[in-house]
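Good morning C.,

I know you're traveling, so I'll keep this short. The sequence:
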Amino acid sequence: MAYTAQDYKKGQPRWCPGCGDHFFLASLHKAMAEIGVAPQDVAVISGIGCSSRLPHYMATYGMNTIHGRAAAIATGCKVANPNLTVWQVSGDGDGLAIGGNHFIHANRRNIDLNMILLNNRIYGLTKGQYSPTSPRGFVSKSSPYGTVEDPFRPAELCFGARGHFFARAVATDAPGTVDILKAAYNHKGSSVCEILQNCVIFNNGTHESVYTKEGRAKNAIYVKHGEPLLFGENNEFGIAQDGFNLKVVEVVDGDWQKAGVLVHDAHCEDNTLQLKLAMMEGPDFPIALGVIRDVEAPTYDESVTAQIEELKAQKKYHSFAELLETNDIWEVK
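The tokens, ready to paste straight into the viewer:
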């Protein structure tokens, strides 16, 4: 059966006009329609925050759970219902502060979850406190003189937890967002999609360099497996290796090989170059968008199911009634 985005829509979103959550929600509806999994076979799990209202606007199963525990509840949902497609949606505060422990272990275990991190570098629902991804020196209601903390960088945290899939998109870039969501679904195991978006009230402009199509043409690089790492309005620049580091090189007459431009390998098990790509930032480097890492590995939920079936086959009993009959039985009259 063919589905449309409308089949996954429900309710009227209650976010501030211009909030990046509106853009992402539309892309998620479109991606789900193109993926084609029936709404009744999908669950969307969130925690607490502006972004965590998203399950209310999905015509699927959904839970708006408790602060920071979306990944834990999504894990239980997937392990108990292995045939269910589970999407977990968190903001940078909900997902990486109180939920940081669950985030790293969901990646380490490689549970088949599609984990969405909506990153606006601020606590929006609680009115503008700095979050785990706010940059050092950021002035907010909870850091009036500038935060003295260094931020988490989601890619670094994912890779450090032995994550096997990491992708990034900008909320205002619908085609780019749909592409990585579909890739996340097709990846079996934990997938992390970082979505860069603005909070128009408390942190507007935090991703301004790539928030417009023109900005992305100048300040972003779309990485695709098996293709050269070229960027610029006319692909006049590329990413090359410089010892253990990366460097930007100029591409003359389209001869990217002569310039030493690297070819992106998202499937390489060694994540060294993938992490370097994910960590690039302006003004010296473009911001990497697209699927940066996509490596196959055994999944937790499949491994648990296989272990249960293996142990069941070794037992003399296969139900609770049979279990009771394995011991001495007395008949009471």
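Safe travels,
E.
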